[in-house]
Amino acid sequence: MTHSRTSWLAALAVCLGGATPFVLNAQDLVPPQSALLENAPVTRVLDEAISPSDMLIPALPISTTSNVEYAESTMMEAADASGCDPKKVAELKKKAASAYKTLYYDNNFSYLCDPCYDGCLLGEDLKRMCVGDCGVLDIGGEYRARYHHEQNMKPFLNGVDDNFLLQRLRLFANYEVNENIRIYGEMLHAVSEFETAPPRPIDENYWEMQNLFIDAKLMETCDGAWYGRVGRQELLYGSQRLVSPLDWANIRRTFDGLKAFYRSDALDIDAFATRPVRKSLNDWDSSNLDQSFYGVWSTYKKSELGTIDLYWLGYENNGGGAAGPFRYQTFGSRVNGEKHSILYDLEGAYQFGEFQNNDHNAGFFTLGFGHQFKEMCWKPKVMVYYDWASGDAIPRDGFNQLFPLAHAYLGWMDLFARNNIEDINVQLTAKPCDPWTLIVWYHIFNRQNSDDVPYTVTNNPYPGTTPAGSRYLGQEIDFMAKCQLTPRSDIIFGYSHFFTGTYFQDQNAINPNVFDGDADFFYTQFSVQF
């Protein structure tokens, strides 16, 4: 790509950054959030959640939701001027700061309906706009830019160096026709520039429809309600180990299909039948008719153990090639909570079916335990994880990681898939002050099955490798510093280093084309939501 493609993106970001939206203080001027959005799927991801159990999920540099605290004196002054309860004003400020979710169709701007809200955040004048007699429209988006310096690791451990700039623009419109029907659309434009090696498939896509669906309330029950959704939609469930829109990528993963979902205070249930959307740079993206992805995901939120997920996921590929055909059924569960000051994040799944006329039996599990020292300065949190996923003597017949956010858990350099892997890792998180979050994460990687090879993050065998040699793959250390500049903008600095293990050295002795050196990764990311 040439840098001329980025000029409009940069100009748009500058213009939006300088915008000063007016504030709507009168409740009768701001239409209330419809029941559809009030009961929309709850995004249970990473650093966006506010419940104690969700704090157990590793903090990751993939979200721009703010955790900035407003100054108490400012909130008190605002409360005195408006005659509102200071606690209510503070709560509205927090709701405004966390209005954007990883799934933008879950965004919640209902705080604008309250006359006690007197804030002024970017893009608020384009939210809760009246359309006709009973319609309401929200318009907004996100601009994100990330610079990469990669040494010996594009697109995996291969000895290739590169420097490049990724830019992404997301634009959405949410139209609530009435209390029972809404239409949501979102476009995405992503470019990669200044690189010397070819862009990765996840780096570029031009003006594609990321989401376009209709929601309808189907029926109400004593405790909740059932809804239906038809169209193109992103999927995100649980810890994102198996189902994720992959926000770290410059483009995002999405699906075409149907979903019925139930929402209540204690229980969420999703049942969906979809086809993955296949990217095409020169044509509109379309459904992959060779593949289908379906299942049921339930979440119980009122257990004494914390949050409990139970799920069944089906993934079928009728296409040819080395990766197919296959038919997989995955049954799993996750428990996420805190007992006696001990944090825990436990998940596992059994997978069975067929792979190229062979019986398929595989699985994975994650054991995570830790503690947060809330009374100490910087409030450090320590988590220790053991990640295990099965391999197999038949290449590619190990655990299939489905549609994951692999970046979140198996090292930020994205060198390995959740397939034929054992990963002992320790994470330390600290907050020296409200805007800043610091993370250090250390991994030790081994092959689970010595009769199988390691797999890249795309679940393909490392090129040129064989099962021979050591099980030890190497170690990775990740550093990240995130500063929340405003409630809707942040900047992230990251550095990672991979210490190559004896497996790759053994493979290099067999095949000199297999790279056996260390690798480095540095990145800087800026994001603004409007």
TrEMBL record:
In its keyword annotation, does this UniProt entry include Secreted? Answer: no
What are the record keywords, sorted? Signal
Any Pfam family: Alginate_exp
What InterPro entries does the annotation carry? Alginate_export_dom, Alginate_Permeability_Chnl
Q: Which range is the signal sequence, renumbered to this chain?
A: 1-26
- Where the record annotates domain Alginate export, the positions are 137-508
Q: Does the keyword Signal apply?
A: yes
In which domain of life is the source organism classified?
A: Bacteria
The name on file for this protein is Alginate export domain-containing protein
